[in-house]
Specification:
By secondary structure, the protein is α/β, with parallel strands linked by helices. Helix content is 47%, strand content 19%. The strands form three sheets. The chain has a five-stranded parallel beta sheet, with helices on both faces. A five-stranded parallel beta sheet has the order 7-6-8-9-10, with helices on both faces.
Length: 448
């Protein structure tokens, strides 16, 4: 496990020591810069994972560093350390997180782990996709409108929080008076942030938070818990139930706005990272032309389905499909026209097979279909449907083909319940495809 490199700039020794104590047991190397020269020396030639900037000192170099770090070539998030009175609009816009003074260990740990967790995910995806030049921005609200759910049994408190958030067109505000109503609304409307009071009738805030974090559709929605309880026990309990942050009553409007903005930034970044992940995953598993599974994913899927079929003693069918006289089609009509044929056949196959089946582009003009829980007879039925779907379709320039239309030949094989090696199943279907080609094309043959 690599050590995170964190640089803190500031001249408040008590604050530096408090942060150092917070990270003592973590996999973090904290370097402190008390002057601009020391900051330049500590960061020169090093990959920094996180900056902490204490901007509370008047006329200090730390505030200037925030602007330089965020607009410069360094791609690292920034946590601003300050009291509420030291924060202005520019700081709020540029910082990725905020840590209030005096530093509270629990709050410090929550902030550091949250920001470093997102940094780690972003770095991993950049390596995975090899697209570092398209890094996800850590700061800035990109979405046009965010949905916020406020949960409090007091109408006065709900109205007060709404008023504190201001007449802001960036927010769509929803409210709930108890835990059950909150869960129903959250599951139906999927908010971007939930502001949740701890003390509620029926299900308390901790229980509601636990339910929210257990739902796949809501587990990444940040929860800001509001509590009037003193001490750290309430916050620790909230963390155990999955809360992302805390506010203590009476709530300050400036602190509320800061925490809301910070959590929405993180949510926005997380959503964009997930989008980037799924795009990368699709690129790794799908054929770019047809949108079907690619050859590599087909091989993995076939092996997994064969193992499952063997374990439960179920049959497994396989089809190998080849476009007849495809080279001639390309030579006469051009490769762009040939690509359109392949894309159309892919659509026809997808429309014919079940959702539990896997259709893949095996390579060139050849396709494959894996048919779970399908015996020899069922495999032939599916093959016949695909054959007719292609033969009956009116392809452009199809009349120029030797068969007078675009057709396919299909080789089929079926594994017995006791299973066989996946490559033997592929070889059997390939042999059957060769027989179909020799029998005049536009037909189905199955291995014996």
């Amino acid at each position: 496990m690599r050590e995170y490199q964190v640089v803190m700039a500031g001249r408040d020794e008590a604050c530096i020591n408090a942060v150092r104590n917070c990270v003592a047991d973590e996999n973090i190397r904290l370097s402190a810069a008390r002057t601009r020269e020391e900051f330049d020396r500590l960061t020169a030639g090093r990959d920094i994972d996180l900056f902490l900037l204490d901007i509370s000192a008047a006329g200090g170099f730390e505030r200037h560093l925030l602007r330089e770090v965020k607009v410069g070539p360094v791609k690292a998030p920034v946590i601003v350390v300050a009291s509420l009175f030291d924060l202005d609009q520019e700081v709020c816009r540029m910082a990725d997180e905020f840590l209030s003074k005096p530093v509270v260990p629990l709050e410090c740990n929550v902030r550091l782990k949250s920001v470093l967790g997102l940094k780690k995910l972003n770095d991993y995806l950049a390596d995975y996709t090899k697209e570092e030049e398209e890094e996800v921005p850590a700061a800035g609200l990109v979405r046009d409108r965010f949905r916020i759910l406020i949960v409090d049994d007091s109408k006065f408190e709900r109205m007060l929080l709404m008023h504190m958030l201001g007449d802001n067109n960036d927010f769509e505000i929803l409210t709930a008076a108890d835990g059950e109503e909150a869960l129903t609304l959250a599951e139906k409307l999927i908010p971007d942030l939930i502001i949740l009071d701890v003390v509620l009738p029926g299900l308390d805030g901790y229980e509601v938070c636990g339910h929210l974090k257990s739902m796949a559709s809501l587990e990444n929605v940040p929860v800001l818990m509001v509590t009037s309880l003193e001490g750290t026990e309430a916050r620790l309990k909230g963390l155990e139930y999955g809360a992302d942050d805390f506010l203590k009553k009476p709530v300050s409007d400036k602190e509320l706005q800061l925490r809301v903005r910070s959590l929405l930034k993180r949510k926005n970044m997380h959503d964009r990272l997930l989008e980037k992940y799924w795009t990368a995953r699709q690129q790794a598993t799908l054929d770019s032309l047809t949108g079907l599974a690619n050859h590599g994913f087909f091989q993995k899927h076939l092996a997994a389905e064969m193992e499952r079929a063997r374990r439960f003693r179920e049959p497994l069918g396989l089809l190998m499909i080849d476009v007849d006289s495809f080279k001639q089609y390309n030579d006469m009509n051009g490769h762009p026209a040939g690509d359109e044929v392949l894309k159309t056949i892919a659509v026809l196959i997808q429309k014919t097979v079940r959702t539990s089946d896997l259709a893949a582009r095996y390579g060139g003009e050849e396709f494959a279909v894996v048919l779970p829980r399908t015996d020899r007879k069922g495999t032939l039925v599916t093959a016949g449907k695909i054959l007719r779907a292609v033969s009956d379709h009116s392809f452009r320039h199809g009349e120029k083909q030797p068969e007078g239309r675009v057709t396919v030949s299909i080789g089929a094989s079926a594994a017995p319940p006791e299973g066989i090696d996946p490559q033997r199943l592929v070889a059997a279907a390939d042999d059957a495809l060769y027989v179909a080609k020799g029998a005049g094309k536009n037909c189905v043959r199955i291995s014996s």
